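Quick note —
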Amino acid sequence: MKKKKWHMIPGVPLTELDKKVMYWEGKGKEVPSRDLIKTPEQIEGIRRAGVVNTGVLDEVAAKIHLGMSTLEIDEIVYNYTIAHGATPAPLNYEGFPKSVCTSINEVVCHGIPKADDILQEGDIINVDCTTCLDGYYADASRMFIIGKTTPEKEQLVRVAKECLEIGAEAAKPYCFVGDIGHAIEKHAKRYHYGIVRDLCGHGVGNQFHEEPDVVHYGKKGTGMLLVPGMVFTIEPMVNMGTWRVFIDADDPYGWEVISEDEKPSAQWEHTFLMTEHGVEVLTY
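Predicted structure written out below.
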């Protein structure tokens, strides 16, 4: 039996939510701790951070172009975020030196913006932003195609977005994290794509990274119970070839993740609030 995590509030009667969580806890399932259930005030704070985060990505979408450097993207993100009273959460996080992750082609995630990384015709790039506003965090990423690319890369970008959407559809109240991963992996396998296993989505909101780990592969009915009030990201990393990855040995910061066979990778991400009726996107 797993250690109990759902703590009752002394003197407060059991709610329907309490009863449902305790039922699954009694079945030996992993359940969230109560502090993962956001209050209305916290949800509103995360929602406001999401508005700024969406604005950042909209600004990038309006300005990204052939021949620009990823360092220019970093400057767009930093300037917009600061101008709106927020801070870019990646900046100086565990040694990450920039305000945004810019991951081109075979770079799966955590690409570091550089002056000499110039966007070329046919590149696909993931721009991943996390915004902190008044102590609350929101996290999302988008793919961009530079100019005209190959049909294979176009399909990869499209399927990666479908994986995010399918994962969100599978996220239901009182179901499990594994339901999300199962649905995503099933869709990716139809195209013989690999779903990265070494990185995952995560709880977010009061901190940059919280429980649960939201894996993008696996079996139904596994992982943490999903309860209304939880906030988390879904962010499948879809590789054109193998799911395996490695850290770029030439990256002095130890952040950039590359597909093992160096084939292209794509990723889309949103921050979601679990409600009684399914998920609500907080980063549109």
